[in-house]
Here is the input.
Amino acid sequence: MNDFDILSDGLALLCGSDSQVEAVIAPRREEIFSLLAKYIVEIERHNPALGIVGTNDRRELVVRHILDSLAPLGIISRFLANDIRAQIADVGSGAGLPGIPLAIALPQAEFTLIERSGRRANFLRNTIAALGIGNAAVEEGEMEKAKPGRFRMVTFRAFRPLEPKIFKKLHRLCAKDGVLAAYKGRPEKIKAEMAALEAAMPNVSLNWELQPCPVPLLDEQRHLVVIYK
Here is the structure.
C-alpha cells in the first residue's frame, strides 16, 4: 500500500464513520482526493526550506495532518448547515492546516487563512493558486490586527494552550453568533485547560462543549472544543 492509498482509505473511513461526512465527500470524492494529493506534494516540496510541518514521512503527514484536519468535518458541516457560505478563519494557519483541507471539502464556505509569517503566507498563497482553490484567501499579519467580528467560525490547530489573553484575541474575531473551534487531544487535558481558563476569567461565563473526532488510522484521542460566543 502506498501513502496515497492511505489517504484514500482514510477518506473512506471518515465517510463510513459519519453519514454527514459521507454526504459532503462522496459526491466529490475523486476531486477531493486529487486536490489533497496535490496539496501533500506542495507541502513536501517546500517543507525542507520552510519547516511548515514536523515530519518528512508521507504517511505521518497524511494521517497526523491531513486526516486530522478533516476529522471534525461532520461536526463543522452540521454547525454550518444553515449557513453554507459561512466565513471561517484558520488562525496561525502555517502550512494551511486545517484551513486548506476544510476549504477543499467545503467549497461553498469562505476561508481566511491568518498567518503572521511572510514566508509561510507566501507558501499559502502559492499553494491556493496551484490547487485552484477559489474559496480560500490569505491574510498576512498578527491575529490581533485582523478585522474583528466577521467570522462564523474561528479554527485553530496545534495552537498554544488557551489563556485569557489569547482567548480574547481569538474571541474578538467571531461574529455575534460565531464559535471558536479548537483542535485538541485528550479530554482530561482539555478539561484542565478549560477549568484554568474559567478560573482566570471569573466574570466571563464560557459556554463550551467537547466533541470527539477520532482520526482514521491514528490510535490517539482527538476532540474538537467548541466555544460559543
